[in-house]
Design a protein that fits this description.
The chain is 25% helix and 28% strand. It contains nine helices and 17 strands.
C-alpha cells in the first residue's frame, strides 16, 4: 500500500483530497503546516491558523487517519518572508505563493513526509499531473478554469512533481463541495482562505512596516503623451525589436506634476490602483513606475495609460526555470506559448526569444501591468513547461 502525506490546511479542498486518496486505497497521513506566529498583521477572522489547525484535526478524526502538526515557521521566515521584504525594498513585487510551493510545500514539507516513509505528498491544488511515455512528468491546468492553480506551481521541478499528487485537479469546485457535503465533512461549507500562503489575509502595509520604515515622498502624475510613449508605439512589435520593447519606461519628476504624497515607494506595485489616495483627478489613477532611490511613485490615469501597457518582457537567464524535461535553453528560442503573468489570467499568446543576456517574451497584444518580481509561466498545448521571474 502506497503511503501519502496530505497537507491538511483546514479547508475543504485538502479535506476532500485526503478523503479521495483514502477511498483510492492509499495509506493517508494528515499533516498541518504551521508557518506563521505573528497575528498582529493578520486581519481578524481571516484564516487564523489556530482555527485551521483545529479543522484539520477534526477532518483527520472524521477520516480516521493519523494527524500531526509540523512547525515550519523558521523556514518560512527565512525563505518566504525575508524574500518578500527584500523584493519590496528593491521596488519589486514578489509572489510568495509561488515560492511557498517551491520552498515549503514541495521542499521542506516533502522532506518531512519522506522521513515518514511516504511515497507521495498531496495537496488540494486545482491542477493535474501526467506521466509521459518517456517517464517524465507534466503539469497541466486544473479542469476548473476558475480555480486553476497551476500558475502557483510554475517553479516545481521533475523530482518534486514525481512525488506530488493532486486528486481534485480533475474536479470542479462545486463537485468538491458536493463530495464534502455528501460525506458530512466539517469543512464542507467553509469559505476559501484568501491572502498570503498559510498566513491568511494580511494588512500588507502593516506587514511591510515591520522592516520597511515609512518615508514620505511624492506621487508624480505622468501625462500619456510623453515622447517615449510615441516612440514605443511607433515600433512594430516584431522579434528584431523585442529588446527595446521589453525595456521598462523611465521617468523623472520633471516629466509630470505632484498630485499626492505617499509613505514609502516600497509599499507600492506596478498597476496598483487602491491605496494611492489621489483626489481631484478626472479618471482613476494607477501606479506606472517606482523609483526607490528617490522614493518617488509615478502614476498615470486610466488602465489604458501607455506607461502601463507593453508588448514584451525580459527574464534573466539564471531566472529561467523548466518544469518540463522536454524543454531547455537549447530549444526554447522561437517557441510559441500560452503565457500568464499573473494568477487567473487568461492565456496570452506570445513567442519566446533567447538572447545572450536573457529570455525575452514578445506578446501578440499589449499586456497591462508587467511587474518586476512576478512570474511569467509558459504553457504549450495545455502543459506548463517553464517559468521565470520578470526583471
Amino acid at each position: 500500500m502506497k503511503r501519502v502525506v496530505v497537507g491538511l490546511s483546514g479547508g475543504v479542498d485538502s479535506s476532500v483530497t485526503a478523503l479521495l486518496l483514502k477511498e483510492q486505497g492509499y495509506e493517508v497521513i494528515g499533516m498541518f503546516m504551521r508557518n506563521w506566529h505573528d497575528e498582529s498583521v493578520t486581519l481578524s477572522d481571516d484564516c487564523p491558523w489556530i482555527d485551521d489547525s483545529n479543522d484539520a484535526l477534526l477532518i483527520a478524526q472524521q477520516l480516521d487517519i493519523p494527524f500531526q502538526v509540523i512547525d515550519l515557521s523558521k523556514e518560512y521566515k527565512e525563505r518566504i518572508v525575508d524574500y518578500m521584504f527584500d523584493e519590496y525594498k528593491n521596488g519589486r513585487t514578489p509572489n510568495p505563493d509561488v515560492l511557498c510551493n517551491r520552498e515549503i510545500k514541495f521542499d521542506v514539507f516533502l522532506k518531512a513526509a519522506l522521513e515518514l516513509n511516504a511515497d507521495y505528498v498531496a495537496t488540494g491544488h486545482y491542477c493535474r499531473k501526467i506521466e509521459h511515455e518517456d517517464g517524465s512528468f507534466g503539469l497541466l491546468a486544473g479542469l476548473d478554469k476558475n480555480k486553476d492553480q497551476s500558475y502557483f506551481l510554475c517553479q516545481l521541478n521533475q523530482e518534486q512533481l514525481s512525488k506530488a499528487l493532486f486528486p481534485i485537479g480533475e474536479l470542479q469546485k462545486d463537485e468538491v463541495r458536493k463530495i464534502a457535503l455528501e460525506n458530512d465533512l466539517v469543512t464542507a461549507e467553509k469559505k476559501d482562505s484568501q491572502g498570503l500562503c498559510f498566513v491568511g489575509k494580511i494588512s500588507l502595509p502593516t506587514f511591510l512596516q515591520q522592516k520597511l520604515s515609512p518615508i514620505k515622498g511624492d506621487i508624480v502624475e505622468i501625462p500619456d503623451d510623453l515622447e517615449q510613449f510615441n516612440v514605443y508605439n511607433a515600433i512594430e512589435p516584431v522579434e528584431k525589436n523585442v529588446v527595446e520593447l521589453a525595456k521598462p519606461f523611465s521617468y523623472s519628476p520633471e516629466m509630470g506634476e505632484v498630485v499626492a504624497s505617499h509613505q514609502g515607494a516600497h509599499y507600492y506595485t506596478i498597476g496598483q490602483r487602491r491605496g494611492l489616495h489621489i483626489g481631484g483627478r478626472p479618471f482613476p489613477s494607477f501606479v506606472i513606475g517606482l523609483d526607490i532611490a528617490s522614493n518617488t511613485v509615478y502614476s498615470g490615469m486610466t488602465d489604458l495609460h501607455p506607461g502601463l501597457n507593453r508588448y514584451a518582457l525580459k527574464i534573466n537567464l539564471e531566472d529561467v526555470h523548466f518544469v518540463s524535461s522536454k524543454f531547455s535553453l537549447n530549444n526554447i528560442d522561437g517557441l510559441e506559448a500560452d503565457i500568464r503573468i499573473r494568477y487567473r489570467q487568461a492565456y496570452q499568446k506570445g513567442i519566446l526569444h533567447l538572447k545572450s543576456d536573457g529570455l525575452y517574451v514578445l506578446f501578440k497584444e499589449k499586456q497591462r501591468g508587467i511587474t518586476p518580481g512576478q512570474f511569467a509561466a509558459f504553457y504549450v498545448e495545455g502543459e506548463l513547461v517553464a517559468s521565470g521571474v520578470i526583471c
